[in-house]
Amino acid sequence: MSKYNNLYHWVDKNKCMHRKDGKILVPTSSGYIALNKDQYELLEEFDNNPCSIEKIIESYPLEYKNRVSTFVDLLIKKNILIESNKKYKLSFLGYIKKLIFFPLPYKGLNKIVGIISKYVNIKIITFIGIIINIIGLITLLPLVNLTGFTIESVPRNILTFLIGFLAGIFHEFWLAIYLHKNNMKVKKWYLRIIWGVIITLAINWSEMLLESRKKRITMFLFVINMTICTASIESILGLVFWYLDFHTLAEYLCMFAIGTLIFFGISLWPFLFKGDGYYIFQEITNVYKIRQRFIQQIAFFYRKDQKHIWTSYKRNEKIALISWGTIFILSIVTINYFIYLGIRIII
In Å, how far from its chain's centre is CA 76? Predict the structure, then answer.
């Protein structure tokens, strides 16, 4: 109980966001946590002046003391409450984010997005994107046959690495345009390193967390449609340039089209990386931070003092975690098998 006698204060209150359903999103060291009105009012006790946890707990009736104590422990663990005589420390995940995210001057980029957004109608451009994607998919197979594209034929130069970068740029710009058209601000732009190799663009779309699940799913589907449109345009142009006898250019466009689809296909697979597919899976199941919670359960499997976390989950949360976790493990096993198979073939 010694830590309960120490003074704690609340940081980052100004970054909280109030949702339409009455819940408040409070920033943590690894994202956001949704609090109800009562939980938020308890947190506000630490806002004006540093306060001891023991003092807060003592102010509640006996039947609520254990629940309040557990909740306050969570606030400390999430770095929402910070001990007043200690400096704020980044979590391990926070240090990793600093290594893979590099902030960009967002005002200039937001200005560009604002100018482009004036000429964009979401419904019309979505319909145009669907038509282009149908044509693009029809033209891709003939283009592959004509160019004789194979994975072995992909050149090992800087253009190959640009595929993921360009796909990321188009993806994030369409996401920023959607937010702008819905009167939301992009507060941060980043350069992001993925898998230690690929550098791409990323934005902070946290304001969408204030909207309904339906609106967030609509956002992701719009961005998916428009990003696939990039590959479709490359495919269509590739076929056109092939018949115009610009064969080298057509081959590169074919490579970019397939590469974009592969990168985006990986992003759509919800059971491996935190891409569009992962976020859509969370919205459909209405269960959030699935990967973090699944890894937490694995880490705490043999700890009896942590078993209450699993028992506190609702039935739909348990189903989502077990389903996601099973396919996640199978995905890793499959990838390792193909890597092993590739090494065997080379040897």
Answer: 24
